[in-house]
């Protein structure tokens, strides 16, 4: 009876998110342009911004994100080694890589094509007279040769310390292959990694039970500092990007899933709720890897040997959400500055953004660097990026949710094609739920 009456994880995360948004908006209303304001609490007068926004809730939110990031490198490395030891055939790994990268690039091309089409039809920049003294500068993206060189780690420990996903993936694959080829010694190491994988996944389960509190803190922080004045002037751009993101997430992915696998898209979307909420609150595909991998393997039925490869790879190179932002932003900036782009220019935008989704992987500020590359390619002023930065934080949260949904969809498609998808688990509405709710913190405390 107690378990039946217990709220699901999704419900608790939604409650935490809504409560955080309401409290954050209330704090913003209290401050109303003031630098600081005191509120009475028990025997003390506490400053809202210093104590609550920049103090209590900022600390809680950052601890939550740090906890997620803490698990990323060990989870990716251990899971990928476990998966590779069972897929030691080089042809199988090559086939997986080709399918995954090809499908990720295809969805990115579809995403930016949708974005450009929607922006041209709606014209969010028409009639907008915006003047900004702000300037934008970005680091230069590396060339293709350097990108390929940087994929291979000189020091795998340093790659793990820096969280360089491509280097970690390559080292883990090579380590897994060597383990599988090492006979009895390799079998003992493989068993050790399987045990480590079980422990790390249990850590993920514990963290998921703490998620509603972390999401609450993050939402308070975001919505207490987000001004509505800038949002109103960019409303057309904002809603075009948001609309295309939702269209891509709720139409493109389910349609591809149905066409390529025959699986029920509604079941897929329902099981993606928790991971999407995590991604929305963290704004980081890499930080959400533990939850995405848990969802893909425990709820969607993808074998770990597939999911441990496709999810980290997708978090690194799948930039569908960012590609949508780039497509709409390119049209918006062109319209604001009165620049007419030709069909060739738009085709160049599609090609550049699609290839750049792999080429700039692992570069800090990847979305803005990619947008700068696209704008330069078609002769638009890079300074135009400064016009849209104000509303980019909220859009970034939505983009991340779309990206990890794409990662999971591709994982299901690849697993189905490799006969590594447990459809009984995929169709089971309770798959993964029991494990999520198995952590009893009261029991842990008493023991």
UniProtKB/TrEMBL annotation:
Superkingdom of origin: Bacteria
Residue intervals passing through the bilayer:
12-31, 51-80, 101-122, 164-183, 203-223, 235-256
Annotated region Disordered: the residues are: 428-447
Membrane topology term: Multi-pass membrane protein
| Ranges of compositional bias, category Basic and acidic residues | 430-447
Going by the UniProt record, its keywords in alphabetical order are:
Cell membrane, Membrane, Transmembrane, Transmembrane helix, Transport
Q: State where the protein is found.
A: Cell membrane
- UniProt-listed PANTHER family: PROTON/GLUTAMATE-ASPARTATE SYMPORTER, PROTON_GLUTAMATE-ASPARTATE SYMPORTER
What name does UniProt use for this protein? Dicarboxylate/amino acid:cation symporter
State the species of origin: Alkalimonas cellulosilytica
């Amino acid at each position: 009876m107690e378990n039946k009456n217990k709220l699901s994880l999704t419900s608790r995360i939604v409650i935490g998110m809504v409560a955080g948004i309401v409290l954050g908006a209330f704090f913003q209303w209290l401050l109303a342009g003031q630098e600081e304001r005191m509120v009475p609490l028990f025997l003390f007068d506490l400053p809202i911004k210093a104590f609550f926004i920049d103090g209590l809730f900022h600390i809680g939110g950052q601890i939550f994100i740090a906890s997620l990031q803490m698990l990323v490198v060990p989870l990716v490395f251990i899971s990928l080694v476990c998966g590779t030891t069972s897929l030691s055939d080089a042809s199988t790994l090559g086939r997986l890589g080709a399918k995954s990268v090809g499908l990720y690039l295809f969805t990115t091309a579809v995403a930016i094509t949708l974005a450009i089409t929607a922006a041209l039809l709606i014209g969010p920049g028409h009639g907008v007279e915006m003047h900004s003294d702000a300037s934008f500068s970005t680091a230069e993206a590396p060339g293709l040769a350097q990108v390929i060189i940087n994929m291979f780690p000189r020091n795998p420990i340093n790659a793990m310390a820096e969280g360089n996903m491509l280097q970690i993936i390559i080292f883990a694959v090579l380590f897994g292959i060597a383990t599988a080829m090492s006979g009895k010694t390799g079998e003992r190491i493989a068993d050790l990694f399987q045990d480590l994988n079980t422990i790390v996944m249990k850590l993920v389960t514990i963290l998921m039970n703490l998620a509603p509190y972390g999401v609450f803190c993050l939402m308070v922080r975001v919505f207490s500092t987000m001004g509505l004045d800038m949002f109103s002037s960019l409303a057309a751009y904002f809603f075009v990007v948001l609309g295309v993101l939702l269209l891509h997430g709720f139409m493109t992915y389910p349609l591809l899933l149905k066409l390529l696998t025959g699986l029920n898209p509604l079941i897929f979307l329902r099981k993606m709720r928790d991971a999407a909420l995590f991604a929305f609150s963290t704004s980081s595909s890499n930080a959400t890897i533990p939850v995405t991998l848990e969802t893909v393997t425990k709820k969607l039925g993808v074998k770990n040997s597939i999911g441990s490869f496709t999810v980290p790879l997708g978090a690194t190179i799948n930039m569908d959400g960012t590609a949508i932002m780039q497509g709409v932003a390119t049209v918006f900036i062109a319209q604001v500055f009165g620049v007419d782009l030709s069909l060739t220019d738009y085709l160049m935008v599609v090609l550049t953004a699609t290839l750049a989704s792999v080429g700039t992987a692992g570069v800090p500020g990847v979305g803005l660097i990619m947008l700068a590359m696209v704008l330069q390619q078609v002769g638009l002023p890079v300074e135009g990026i400064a016009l849209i930065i104000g509303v980019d934080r909220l859009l970034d949260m939505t983009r991340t949710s779309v990206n990890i949904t794409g990662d999971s969809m591709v994982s299901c498609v690849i697993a189905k094609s490799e006969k590594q998808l447990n459809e009984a688990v995929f169709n089971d509405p309770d798959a993964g739920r029991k494990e999520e709710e198995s952590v009893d913190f009261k029991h842990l405390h008493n023991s």
